[in-house]
Structures are given as structure tokens and as C-alpha cells.
Design a protein that fits this description.
Length: 477
Amino acid sequence: MYLMCKVLFTIFLRFLLISQVHSLPKKKSYSEIKSCNIGNLAEEIASYDSVVRDIVDYVVSGPFKRKTYDELEKFVDMFGSRMSGSQVLEDSIDYMIKLTQDEDLTDIVTEELEVPHWVREQEKITMLEPRSKNIAVLGLGRSVSTPPEGVTSDVVVFSSFEEFDDAPIEYVEGKIVLFNAIYTTYGETSSYRTQGAARAAEKGAVASLVRSITPFSINSPHTGSQYYSENVTKIPTAAITLEDADLINRFYNRGEKVVLNIKMQSSFETKTSRNTLIDLKGTKNPEKLVIVSGHIDSWDVGQGAMDDGGGLFVSWAAPIILKRLNLRPKRTVRAIFWTAEELGLIGAYAYAEKHKNESHNINFIMESDEGTFAPRGLSVAGTQEARCIIAEILKLFESINASTLVETNSPGSDITVIVKDGVPGASLHNANENYFWFHHTEGDTMNVENPEELDLCTAFWTAVAYIIADISVDIPR
């Protein structure tokens, strides 16, 4: 019981951090940073042009063509969804270790940690008034169960937290709250999913629903994490589709009484999982790390192909390709497969804690967790000088239209845990305009992946990691 309480409290604190990250100002995009003067380093970086071309050719048209896609396809078809704490996740980790060993790359370490294991069981929502209708539903991560007979009550609808805050307690108490906030950006709108249940419970709601966090839907609900506040009753919470949210809203706006019955059953416990570390040791400064990463777990819907199978496999491919091409950088290139990202960046926090005395050796850290569509560049956190160096490296990728640098203080998801302490890092910036159409849904399957775009991401990811790991200077902090 103590361990469970500790885990729940830790997750709560982590989602507070995530919500703060999402509230940061919007990113600024540009191809070059003004006032950059990195002297002779610019010439050194330019000299890697031939290496970039060799890597791109090897991956896009050479022996590695479609390799990343084919391996991703086999992986997600074999394992499907890989929920935190599940046996299938652990089997998928074993598979990735064997796949790496088959490439004669054997410097592999796994690090155990405790992770949450939430299992979705029965879920059903029925509209009883003003007419009978089944409502498509996906419970939100760690939602508590309803009684066996479910929860039946009137629905009150709010389009924003501001509107909800203005409502008197007696208007909400005993009701089912629906937050029907229109999607703007994921960072802004996801707060209704992560905070909705806690906010509704504060005013005595018996359950909460959220309009799925997406700009597009074909009656597809989107799951995701939420957190419960301390000292507030935990109430069942779920996402419904845009179509059903708007239907309920229309009834509500016409003054018609909307009554729902919500039946949800789930279980929650802790299990042991592993982060996976794969090293291609540096030739001169092996203690210094350039990290490429993606998370191996997924939600329990779809195949986890896009979130984050693609990010997992471009990070797996980077040290493999460098080894095949006999490109050994001065610093170590480390691939990390984070575990339990979806339920609160659990693997990343465990890694940061275990390696806190070694963080000064992280030269640069990268993560792909927002799709692996056509690469456009990097979203970079760090000092002005660090961004200048990365911008110079990105110039080498103009031929594949991947030279954009996006300025941000919070790249990626997992690596935010490490970047927040001053370590420079970046996430993959790609043409992911439709990413949130499929995010956390049954639609996250191989059908959304494109082999040519995945090849370009693989080549880009590998070449950037190699250059950063091999240039004569560390990325400044």
C-alpha cells in the first residue's frame, strides 16, 4: 500500500510538471539563428557534408532502404499495443535486445524500475435521455471504476475551465461534467484531459468526460493520461468522440435534459519494467554521451506504430547504421528505449535519478515522440550558442528539406525531465500535421507510417547524432 501511494503521488507531481511545460509560450521557428558566430567550427561542421551524403544514400537508396520500416512493421504486428507493466511490453523489450544483438551490437544494459499497470476492462456509456444511444468511449489512464451498476446522472457541459470555475457548486454537485473544449493545440487542450476529473471532483461531480483531444474525428475516441489531485474524491473519467460531445452539447444548449449511464471497470497495480540502453562507444571520450531515444511502451489501443514505434526504431537504427558504416564518433552514441512514458514519464524519471551524478557527461540528448513523418529539422533547447551550433549542423540537411530549427524550452516528452536541468537537447521536428488525428486511438497502426519518410527520418536522426558526437567541441550549456 505504501508503494502504491508513493507511486500515485509521484505521478501526480510529474503531471504537474508536464502541465507546466505545456503552458510555455509557443515555439518560434526559423532556419537560421541571427547573431551566430561560431568561427572555425562552421568550417569543421561543413566538412561533414560527405558523411551526411553517405548516410542518406545508405538509408534512402542503399542496403538499409526500408529496413527501419520493415522492422517496425514486424515489431508492431507481432506485439501490438504495449501497455506499461504488461507482459507484452516486457516481451517487446526482449525482442529489441535480440534484434540489436543480431546486428553484433552487444553493449546493452537494462535498468529495472517500478511502473504503473492500469488495465482497461469493461467500458460503456449509454445515453438514456433525451433518447437512447450508445456513446463511444475510452477511459483515461488510471481512471477509477464505477459501481457495477454504473453511474447515472444528468450532464452539465462546459466549454472551458473559466466557464466551469464560474459555475456554483450546487450546479455541478452530483452531475456528470463534460468538458467540451475545442482543440487549439495539444499543449493547451490536453489540460482538459489531464486535469478535468480533478477539477470536476472538487465541485462534487460524480464523473467527468472530455471531448477527445484531437482536431479531427471519424467517431474515434482518444485516450491518454489524467491525474487525480490529493484530498479530492477520485471519480471515473473518460474521453468521448467529437461527434458525441457536440451532440450532447446541442441537446444541452436547447435546454433538453441529458442523462447518461457510465459503466467502467479497471484495475491498477505496480509492476517491474526496464529502460533499455544501447551504446556505440566513442573512440576518444566514451564517457561523454549523445543520446537518441524513443519510448517503447504505448497505450492499449491501436498498435503504437506512430506513438512511439517510429521514434523507437529511428533511435534503434542510429547506432546500428553507424556500426555498419564503421563510423565511430569521438563520443558515445547511446540509444535509450524509455519505458512507461504514457503513464507519466516513469522511465525517464528513473533514468534521471539513477544517473544524476553523470548528467554532466550528457553532451546532447534527442527524442522522437511526435511522429516520424517527413523530417523538417529539430526543436532545440539550450543556450544561444548551443542553438547556433545545431543550426549550423542543420544546414547540411537542406537537400532533404530538414534544416529548420525550432526554438523551445521543452523538446520531447521524456527528455524534458533531463533538459529542464540545463542539458541541451532536441526533438524531431517533422511534418506531423495529422499526428493528433490518430494519437492515442485505435487508428495508430502501420497504415499511418510511410516507408520513404521513415527512411529520411532514420538517415537524418543518425547523421545528426553522429556529427554532434564527433565534432571537436562539446555542445555548450
